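subagent[fold] <- orchestrator: predict structure for attached chain, return C-alpha cells only, no commentary.
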Amino acid sequence: MNILSIKGSLIKKNEVENIESKDGKKWIKQTFLLKTSAEYNNQICFQLFGEEKIKLLEAYQLGDVIEVFFNVSSREYNGRYYHNIDAWKIADGNKEDSTEATNEENLPF
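subagent[fold] -> orchestrator:
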C-alpha cells in the first residue's frame, strides 16, 4: 500500500473537541486546515484523534509549511458515504526526506 502524504501551509487549527459516543466512550479530536499548491480545491481539512496525535500539531504555527501523512476512510450511512482524512504523522515540509538521500547513497554504481 502506498503512503499518502501532502505538503502545504497550515492555515487553521480548530479547538480540541471532547467527544462522547452513545455508549459512553470518550475521546478527543482536533481538526486543522492545510492549503496546498493545487490550482483548485486547494484546502484540505484533516483530523487528529487522541491526545498523542493532537500533540503532533503543537510544534507548528499558522503559516508553517508541513507535510501531513494520512489515511482516507469512508463509511456508509443511510445510502450516503462520509469520508474522513485522518492524519497520523506531521513533518516539517521544508526539510528534504532523508530516506531518499540514504537510498541514493546505497546505489551500487
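orchestrator: received. Logging for downstream: The chain has one domain: 4-105. The first strand starts at residue 4 and ends at 13.
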